[in-house]
Amino acid sequence: MKNIKQIINSEKLNIPVEVKAWVKTFRNDRFIAVNDGSTIQNLQLVIEPEKFDENIRKKINTGAAIYAKGELKESLGKGQKVEVLVDELEILGESDPEKFPIQPKRHSLEFLREKAHLRPRTTLFGAIMRVRNTLAFAIHEYFQKNDFLYVNTPIITAADAEGAGEMFQVTTLDLQNPPQTEEGEIDYKKDFFHTKTNLTVSGQLEAETYAMALGKVYTFGPTFRAENSNTTRHLAEFWMIEPEVAFMDLHGDMDLAEDFVKYIIKTVLEKNREDLEFLEMRLKNEEKQKPQNERSNWSLIEKLEFVLENNFKRLSYTEAIEILKNSKPFKKKKFKFPVEWGIDLQSEHERYLVEKHFKSPVIIYDYPAKIKAFYMRLNDDGKTVRAMDVLFPGIGEIIGGSQREERLDVLLKKMKELNIDAEELYWYVDTRRFGTAVHSGFGLGFERIVQFVTGMGNIRDVIPYPRFPGNANF
Ligand code: 4AD
Ligand code: MG
To answer: Which bound ligand lies closest to the C-alpha atom of 164?
Structure first.
């Protein structure tokens, strides 16, 4: 049986067709709009009221699953090219119109978040999920075309790759009555893995060991962070893509990041035009609610095309601080957070650089060592590391990456300073003991790129079931 996308694009007319789909609307006792998720477009089914029993007609409610058989016709009405003149109609699954929450009208995103199991029935969430699917596909396609190997790094691990301590512990110990050591501490030797474990915050460390054997690899998997951030950019469970490449330095890393992001955005522009047009319209309507000076001058598709057509601006952290210090908001004390060399750039600073100063995606590199992870390569100045962040308009940081510290002595010294146990991480350090080499990689936050491409303001609306502090529903 064909899906609605295939039916709508059918070259032949006046042929018999069958559909199984959900009812969106039923008007004038005659026109049923149905959708099966294969496309943003609804298929119009036309029924002659006299031909169908009252009993069936009253069950054609929004949300019901139906089967229809009929003839595909050119549509005389506006809004669609084809329609199906129905001969046979069956209600597969009824939907009580009093109780089905997704009515054919605008619902707030907050309301839909509460109904996360039914929101994929809306036109909006269908569009978001199709875009998300294309991005995932394009990510694999990009790496596969470029000879990267897809590796699956562990989800449960004893390591804290980022060293930020934002981990969810995994244990089978009885929390009411955990086994204790003689010193009165919890005895993790009695835990499932005979050691303390957590959900991974990043697959990078394991990916590095594979890059140092197989050259070019990437991961694409779930990552978990127990940071208590209730923002529109953070999830406790999100998907990350982490390429890692041997013999590549930071410049190669920036080139790869830019080429890769452009490729996946281009693929969505090619494959999901109708979804993007709908998302663009939604965004325009949303912008209209904002005060004039906060509205974006760009439409969604223009913004995506701009990213494709322009080079990302590259500048060092030190240059970024200079620009911020000479900026109007800094001089007028409009920034909430201080600006001085050594600070971690806040979202307000990143957004100023991207949206006001450069008006383009920006890559900032060579950050102060103190604010970055232990594995980043130290520069000759002794105070900056070969890190890079890609910043996007409306989102801020979308990618974080670096050239890795490949020198054994420098790495060990750094780990010691930060109290990271080099014996526990012996397997990571071993890559520097046996055939070490320059290598680099980065992590792209999958939901952040979905947010950017769909224009959705809140990251909780671009993943089927968002996890955030206080919520693990569904
Ligand atoms: O900058 P991060 O922390 O970098 C790493 O984890 C490195 N190990 C990556 C690497 O070099 N292989 O995270 C990478 C990206 C961020 O730029 C951001 O897009 C996303 O992951 N991210 C989050 N997305 C959603 N919710 C969160 N809580 C996120 N934390 C990071
Ligand atoms: Mg980062």
So the answer is: 1
